[in-house]
Specification:
The protein is of the alpha/beta class and about 230 residues long. Helix content is about 40%, strand content about 20%. The chain contains eight helices and six strands, in the order αβααββααβαβαβα. It has a six-stranded mixed sheet, with helices on both faces. Helix 6 (about 160-165) links the parallel strand 4 and strand 5 (about 170-175). It is globular and about 45 Å long. The termini are far apart. It holds the Pfam family DUF1194.
């Protein structure tokens, strides 16, 4: 498979001069959420509600307020199909409870995108392009990928996309959503697969959620760690 550097992609280059003139926030964060065919309607609802709850939690708002600019910008991407990752909520600035509630409402109201297989590498490429084209500037640019399985059908392998994103100054953290005792086809816990193939950059880390009912807790802890 032909491997091109992320920075050589036309969309990334076109966005760079615009970003240099944009308002500044402490962190640019892309939440890349698994919407593949393995997630039924009830699980998807739990996932959306857990994300909204985490984004509005007092501990997350406190972490944002404790940063020098007191603001972050968040976008939400759904991924699954090869080359099909989709931005369902574009970047919104979060600086207080009201703006956090507005973001949470946008997350809950966004139509579900049409996704299929687990294409994590393509999700990372999409998230990296989104960060490079963001209407805000930040010293910290982060992709926060959550999923319930390994990379299966990416046009570019997850580790390749990860390496290019890290080279562009982006950190990638991961949330592994798996039932207790579940292992991947490689015979290892999903968190270990994500640790090896997905995360990257200084201080990158993986957290685990036992199931989608545990997403709010896991994502809340993850957001506080990423922001603070």
């Amino acid at each position: 498979m032909h491997r091109r550097s992320l920075l050589a992609l036309p969309g990334a280059l076109a966005a760079a001069p615009v970003a240099a003139q944009a308002p500044e926030v402490d962190t640019l964060l892309v939440l890349a959420v698994d919407a593949s065919g393995s997630i039924d309607a009830d699980e998807f609802r739990l996932q959306r509600e857990g994300t909204a709850e985490a984004l509005t939690h007092p501990s997350v708002l406190s972490a944002i307020a404790g940063r020098p600019r007191g603001a972050i910008a968040v976008a939400v991407v759904e991924w699954g199909s090869p080359g099909g990752a989709e931005t369902v909520v574009d970047f919104m600035r979060v600086a207080d409870a009201a703006s956090a509630r507005a973001l949470a409402r946008a997350v809950l109201d966004a139509p579900r995108s049409r996704q299929g297989w687990n294409a994590i590498g393509d999700a990372l490429d999409h998230g990296a392009r989104l960060l490079l084209a963001a209407p805000f500037r930040a010293a910290e640019r982060v992709i926060d990928l959550s999923g319930d399985g390994p990379d299966l059908r990416s046009l570019r392998a997850a580790a390749v996309a990860r390496d290019d994103a890290v080279a562009a100054g982006i950190r990638i953290n991961a949330l592994a959503v798996a039932s207790a005792g579940q292992v991947t086809r490689l015979g290892e816990p999903l968190a270990e697969t994500y640790r090896r193939e997905v995360i990257g950059g200084p201080g990158a880390f993986v957290v685990s959620a036992e199931d989608r009912r545990d997403i709010a807790r896991a994502l809340r802890a993850k957001l506080v760690r990423e922001i603070a």
